[in-house]
Specification:
It contains 19 helices and 7 strands. It is mainly alpha-helical and 425 residues long.
Length: 425
């Protein structure tokens, strides 16, 4: 990779496949910063696993130690790889960096994003609205189970609540306890995405359901023929007349079409489904036995087939819309249950005075972007970070991206008389 990516005064985003040397480049960037006189305490390197953070620190130490112990020839070659000329002052600094970093009171910070968030909230607990000295709940499984049990107990006490009605709705659709638990646990596990999705909404549930309704095209005018309308009723009678005229058609159940003519609503739809469609939802093929076909002229046969085709198309349209309505109702019920479980999860966390990794991210984001003390907190942080490096940036979630955005904006804005940069890989 080009040495241009190592120039400290330049902000760089690197995209490359796994195994192509991105981590080497990031560590080299850190070394280049240190070799050019950047204080170690002004460098913040973020990654997404403890293993990766530990490996990053280890690699920096190994390469600094290698610089201290290298021969003159090896040291000159390494400096050139880093894009630096092996000048006497640079060589002297390279030889002493390892020892200097060992005793630096403000060492290089290479940590996970979660560790950074934990440190941030601990420093600004009052501003973030978290309990001072909060604990970190690293395992969420037990929390989710307790939140679910707490929710079920609460719904038993409040059977008329919207969440209780949602639970009855899902049970009525045939969903069992295991499925319900999976849905709730999945919602809780992705609650950071939910918070990001409904951020700023006074009525988050109403907003989400309205968005889903729009996505399912259910806030549009009825897209198809009303099966109970006069127009469809007339077409249905035409089809039935042709069935009588031809003494039936192969596969199509004439008696169910007769029942549909007399019925309405759900009964009409069900009769049409049984009379015109297979169990898998595919329509029966339009086909007449030879003797019945010979009773009709070509023109009559075409009118018969057109009537069948129009009725089948109308029923298919109605069936498809019913699926979308069912999807909306099922999803809305699941969202009601999920948000109710989220409330009980927050109660569990409050009792334990604890935060999870997801809470660390979201609370830190609100601290840095929300109203109130956000600008002051960002100012305090800004004084300590000159160079931000982010490893495995493609793994960022929406919340993590929003959390990092203030730093990226500050770096992009620049600061006269202060050399700053962002390095993303």
């Amino acid at each position: 990779m080009s040495n241009e990516a190592l120039v400290p005064g330049r902000s760089v985003a690197v995209t490359a496949s796994a195994g192509s040397g991105k981590t080497w480049l990031l560590v080299s960037r850190v070394l280049r910063l240190l070799l050019e006189g950047q204080p170690a305490g002004g460098i913040l390197a973020l990654t997404f696993t403890r293993k990766a953070a530990a490996e990053m620190r280890e690699r920096v130490n190994q390469r600094l130690r290698a610089l201290a112990e290298a021969s003159e020839f090896e040291l000159a070659a390494e400096l050139e790889r880093l894009g630096l000329a092996p000048a006497p002052a640079t060589i002297e600094r390279a030889r002493g960096l390892y020892e200097a970093l060992l005793f630096d009171p403000y060492p290089l910070r290479a940590m996970t994003l979660h560790a950074f968030c934990q440190d941030l909230l601990a420093r600004f607990a009052l501003e973030a609205g978290v309990a001072p000295g909060f604990a970190l709940a690293e395992s969420e499984g037990g929390l989710f189970r307790r939140a679910w049990r707490r929710l079920l107990a609460a719904l038993h006490q409040r059977p008329d609540s919207e969440a209780a009605q949602a639970l009855r709705n899902l049970i009525g659709q045939g969903y069992g306890e295991s499925w319900l638990e999976d849905v709730v646990y999945s919602f809780l596990a992705h609650r950071g995405d939910w918070w990001a999705y409904v951020e700023g909404q006074a009525q988050p549930l109403d907003y989400a359901v309205a968005r889903l309704r729009t996505a399912l095209r259910l806030d549009e005018a009825e897209d198809g023929i009303d099966l109970d309308g006069d127009a469809f009723g007339a077409r249905l009678k035409i089809l039935l007349r042709w069935l009588h005229e031809a003494d039936g058609a192969r596969w199509i159940k004439t008696e169910r079409i007769e029942a549909a003519v007399e019925a309405a609503g759900e009964a009409r739809f069900e009769a049409l489904r049984q009379g015109l469609f297979k169990q898998d939802g595919e329509p029966y093929k339009f086909q007449l036995l030879k003797a019945k076909r010979e009773r009709l002229s070509d023109s009559q046969y075409q009118h018969f087939e057109d009537a069948w085709r129009e009725v089948v198309a109308a029923v298919e349209s109605a069936a498809e819309r019913r699926l979308r309505v069912a999807c909306l109702e099922r999803s809305a019920a699941a969202l009601h249950l999920g948000t109710a479980a989220l409330e009980t999860l927050e109660q569990e966390l409050a009792v334990e005075r604890a935060l999870t990794f997801t809470d660390l991210e979201w609370r830190s984001y609100l601290l840095l972007r929300g109203p109130g003390n956000a600008e002051w907190v960002r100012y305090k942080l800004d004084q300590k970070i000159d160079h931000l490096l982010v490893d495995e940036f493609q793994d960022t979630s929406p919340t993590q991206w929003r959390l990092l955005l203030p730093f990226l904006e500050e770096m992009a804005a620049g600061d006269a008389g202060r050399r700053r940069s962002v390095f993303i890989v």
